[in-house]
Amino acid sequence: MGRWRPDARVRLMEAALALYGERGYDETTVAEIAERAGLTKRTFFRYFADKREVLFWGSELLEQQMVAAIEAAPASASALSMIGAALDAAAARFEEAREFVGLRQRIVASSHELQERELIKTSKLAAAVTAALRARGIDDDAAVLAARMGTTVMHFAFERWVDDPDRTPFQRIARDALARLKEIASAG
Amino acid sequence: MGRWRPDARVRLMEAALALYGERGYDETTVAEIAERAGLTKRTFFRYFADKREVLFWGSELLEQQMVAAIEAAPASASALSMIGAALDAAAARFEEAREFVGLRQRIVASSHELQERELIKTSKLAAAVTAALRARGIDDDAAVLAARMGTTVMHFAFERWVDDPDRTPFQRIARDALARLKEIASAG
DNA sequence: GGAGTGATGTCACCTGGTGTCATCACCCTA
DNA sequence: TAGGGTGATGACACCAGGTGACATCACTCC
Predict the structure, then answer these.
(1) How do residues B113-135 score in pLDDT, each as one tens digit?
(2) CATH number of A8-54
(3) How far apart are CA A36 and CA A8, in angstroms?
(4) In angstroms, rounded to a whole number, what is the distance separating the alpha carbons of residues A60 and A57?
(5) How far is the CA of B1 from the C1' of D8 (A)?
(6) Partner B contacted by A180 (CB < 8 A)
């Protein structure tokens, strides 16, 4: 076997992405992924907690960048304008990996199990954003609510962005969505 | 065995709730639940799609009642005021089953797997609310965003409500939270 | 060149989940 | 009142995800 060959994690990710894409998530076996990567089922589970997690590697990076954007916002910024900055950071990350993100999204959308995992990742992201907002002096309740509005807008914009034939930049879609959300909230 | 004894589904639910509460979700086996209910593992899976689903029986009812509240809202109502009505409906449901809801919540909070399932149920609820808003003439984007704001507020209020020593009514907590959300959105 | 170390393989095992068929309780009808 | 039909359940075999324990290999460093 490919013992000791480097990049086991990356090989496993690529194998999983390929197989999930080719024949579907449910129809793919962990043993098959491992075989394609020249490894063993046991080794797969040493790198990824479960069969789903392999698709969400890198979500911490998005989280970190959004948090960093909030930390870097001007002192006078309101909660929602810091959310706007975080969304800009997300935009940069999405744009730079557009095709990967698109494939990944199609796979996730095809499986109930994967959507569950996606939702809890979003929830974790919201928690991180909440903490970042609190660190910037936003009070607890407002931090929670603003962070959730942020992930709502991100999710909404993401869905529009991934299969937009015009390839409108994520940043623009997200900004419009955020503006729309404010409008709806104010009109109530 | 208790063949033919009625209420198999209810017996399974009660057994599951009891065992999850006593010894934890992960430490409970489906075979054990079935045994406690006087049934078989195979029968458990005839009533519930999986080990998690047994805790979410009745979530369709909440959905229906919130949708009904939107359908019954006055013609002049804004998207967010219809969300308010839906939250009132949710409040009624929560209050009438407070202790069950609390136990269930503690169990869900203890397990990652169960939180995932909870999140996808919330997402399904948001989709139903979105459809109801659209049926009331709210445009697509606004319906999606308002519905998500609604589940955000519901979730936020729910967390405060379940372990509030003062037993403040859910309705009041939710209304305050909705007001707070509007305030944050407007201040941005 | 040999000891140590960390990544991998091997194997056994548990549990969630499903397909298939037998079996039982109950109802209906002659 | 016997017998057939029907739907719920049991029994059994099986697959895949996931884990613990231990052996084994490649590589490094002395």
Answers:
(1) 999 999 999 999 999 999 999 99
(2) 1.10.10.60
(3) 11
(4) 8
(5) 13
(6) yes
CATH 1.10.8.80 fits A58-187, yes or no: no
Confidence of residue A8 (pLDDT cuts 50, 70, 90): very high
* Structure confidence by residue, pLDDT tens digits, A25-55: 999 999 999 999 999 999 999 999 999 999 9
Å separating the CA of residue A26 from the C1' of nucleotide D26: 35
Cα dist. A5→A43, A49, B30 in Å? 13, 21, 41
Å: A104 CA to D27 C1': 36
A142 contacts B188? CB cut-off 8 A:
no
The nearest CA of chain A is from the CA of B155 a distance in Å of: 10
- Residues 52-81 of chain A with CB under 8 A from chain B are 78-81
Shortest distance between the Cα of B139 and any Cα of chain A, in A, equals 11
Is there a shared CATH topology between the B8-54 domain and the B58-187 domain?
Answer: no
pLDDT, tens digit, 9 for 90 and up, residues B23-78: 999 999 999 999 999 999 999 999 999 999 999 998 999 999 999 999 999 999 99
